[in-house]
Amino acid sequence: MSSINKLVLFTLLLIFAGFNAESQKSKIDDQFTELNNSGKVEVAYEDTLSIKYIDAKTIRATWYGPGFHGNLTSSGEVFDQEAFTAAHRTLPFGTMVRVTNLKNDKSVIVKINDRGPGSLYLDLDLSKGAARELDMLLAGVAELKMEIVQFSGVLNPIVSAD
Question: What predicted TM-score, i.e. pTM, was given to this entire model?
Answer without folding.
Answer: 0.68
